[in-house]
Give the backbone structure.
Amino acid sequence: MFKLSQHTRDEQLMKSFVDYLGCGNVYVSGTTVEYIVTKINDLTDKVIPFFQKYSIQRVKHSDFLDFVSVVELMNNKIHLTEEGLDRIKKFKNGMNKGRE
């Protein structure tokens, strides 16, 4: 899953991702708006190329690179093995606030 969160004042921006990329959904909860994409083909063909072209900055860039690695593992069916799941868990544990 790819999830991008912002304050609700940026709701129109988040909706523009749905329109521009032609995938995902926008959800509003309290003061937060989220753009979420779950389909692996949409991640591979639309979301990843977009954010490779328009790079995410700072520590989130490292999280994005880890996310791309996980999607590649899934596309190659490596996630179906115990070793593959362990690799994905290591990526997940290092993302966001787990990154040192």
